[in-house]
Amino acid sequence: MVAAKPSLVSGEFVTRAQAALPSLRATDKRVIEMILSAPEAVVRGSVTELAQKAGVAQSSAVRACQRIGYRGYQDVKLAITRDLAQQGAQEQELAHEEGIDSHTPAADILDRVLRRSGRALVDAAQTVDPELLSLTIDRIAAAGRILVIGNGTSAAPAHDAAYRLSALGLVTLYPTDVMAQHLAARHLDTSCVCLIVSHTGASRESLLSAEAARTAGAFVIAITSFTNSPLTRIADASLIAGGPEYGFRLEAMASRLAHLGIIDALFVGIAVRHPKTSTKALDMMADTTIEHSL
Fold this sequence. Notes:
The protein is an alpha/beta fold. The protein has helices at residues 12-20, 26-37, 39-44, 47-54, 58-67, 73-94, 106-127, 130-142, 155-167, 178-186, 204-216, 230-234, 250-273, 275-291; strands at 145-150, 172-173, 192-198, 219-224, 237-240. Residues 1-6, 91-98 and 244-249 have low confidence and may be disordered. It comes from Streptomyces scopuliridis.
């Protein structure tokens, strides 16, 4: 079955569903795609009707809802109701977002991209596990050494993470060469943290370093877009911030901004854990910035 284009483009349910879809089994994927194709019907209907339309057993429909993070079908209905209400308030201002082509004015392209990016940041609050975020903050703050890795389009947010952690006075490494990354990961120990930023969670170079860091005993943290990937299976803590598939490869760009949002949250969380130390380090950063200003 090929699902129709989703009438929901953002929100809690869409964000969770899109993050999980690539790893779902065929039966579960059929149920979730059916919900995405007709969310209004799901709100009005029953789980029995959903199961019949998807061609699965009722129990399978309930399990599909559970596999993307809900307790059951009723929780999905509530989430979709909230998402539809939020989208309804935005529909008028977003009506022009039906496509970009060679005739689309530059101003409209800018408006569309910025709106999509804004949604990705809001939606990240639905997929990042607060307990894992808190654990990640604690482990980074207490780490003897932090290795930050990111390749391809994830290199920029990883670089930003390394800079910000260094600004807090934390011992942070950010090798850009993939062999140097792999070697540095092997030199980690149980006092260390390895933070890996990867949109797909399937970059071979990043995975080699993740596996080496885990073997060395380091605490491995993933900032990624999908709930089930080779990287999330290695990581001790995975912070998931993905977004709906926007086309024009905008999902990777929007996810990159969501990953930067997570990095900002880590930065603030670590800073407030140790206010005196952080204040001293940030004052030092401000003084250094002034020295490099004209």
